């Protein structure tokens, strides 16, 4: 199916869109406010574990990956304010037809159902618009909040991967979760193309 960029996904007061240059001040303030909240879960470069790319590079990389369709990195906007991010990448087509999901939300908005809605919106886009077969997510075992998000989306726990991702200065174990298009009930998937989001709504 055709890839669309820039991508703009909406569900009521929640919106997923690309990071923009004019988001700089608000985005950096959001990250700084959540620095300690996110540090145990953020992926790091093993060669430079404390180095973070500048904002301008993030915007440039996100735009390049979005245009090529190799990854989607979108900010979560709620009632006009930045509330976190959701990412998808790498996106693989062909025999694998899969993508890896990531998400985080502002600690002040934790527990409001924002992360599950944003993740569901992105997964539905994967299945209905990108024609992917599978979405997976890797979560540190002790990250109970993130694991609850995966479970709310009916993602299957698939096992522990030793030293999978460099996080917070070291190689960390992660538990993998996954969902395939066939696991979305047909009456939900066929009706709107938003089967994951629709199921999430019904189970609230």
TrEMBL record:
Record carries keyword Transferase: yes
Alphabetic keyword roster: Transferase
Record-linked InterPro entries: Acyl_CoA_acyltransferase, GNAT_dom, Ribosomal_N-acetyltransferase
PROSITE patterns: GNAT
Any GO CC annotation of this UniProt entry: cytoplasm
Limits of the N-acetyltransferase domain: 14-182
GO molecular function: protein N-terminal-serine acetyltransferase activity; protein-N-terminal-alanine acetyltransferase activity
Pfam families, sorted: Acetyltransf_3
Listed PANTHER family: ACETYLTRANSFERASE, RIBOSOMAL-PROTEIN-SERINE ACETYLTRANSFERASE
Protein name: GNAT family acetyltransferase
């Amino acid at each position: 199916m055709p890839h669309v960029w820039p991508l703009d996904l909406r569900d009521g007061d929640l919106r997923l869109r690309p990071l923009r240059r004019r988001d700089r001040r608000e985005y950096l303030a959001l990250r700084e406010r959540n620095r300690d909240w996110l540090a145990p879960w953020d992926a790091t470069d093993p060669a430079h574990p404390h180095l973070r790319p500048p904002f301008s590079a993030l915007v440039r990389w996100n735009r390049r990956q979005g245009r090529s369709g190799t990854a989607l990195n979108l900010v979560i906007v709620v009632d006009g304010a930045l509330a976190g991010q959701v990412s998808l990448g790498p996106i693989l087509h062909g025999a694998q037809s899969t993508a890896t999901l990531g998400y985080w939300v502002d600690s002040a908005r934790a527990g409001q159902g924002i992360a599950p809605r944003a993740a569901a919106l992105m997964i539905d886009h994967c299945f209905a618009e990108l024609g992917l077969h599978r979405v997976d997510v890797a979560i540190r075992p002790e990250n109970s909040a993130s694991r609850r998000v995966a479970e709310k989306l009916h993602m299957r726990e698939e096992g522990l991967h030793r030293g999978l991702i460099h996080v917070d200065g070291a190689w960390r174990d992660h538990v993998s979760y996954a969902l395939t298009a066939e696991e979305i009930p047909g009456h939900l998937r066929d009706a709107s193309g938003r089967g994951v989001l629709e199921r999430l709504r019904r189970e609230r």
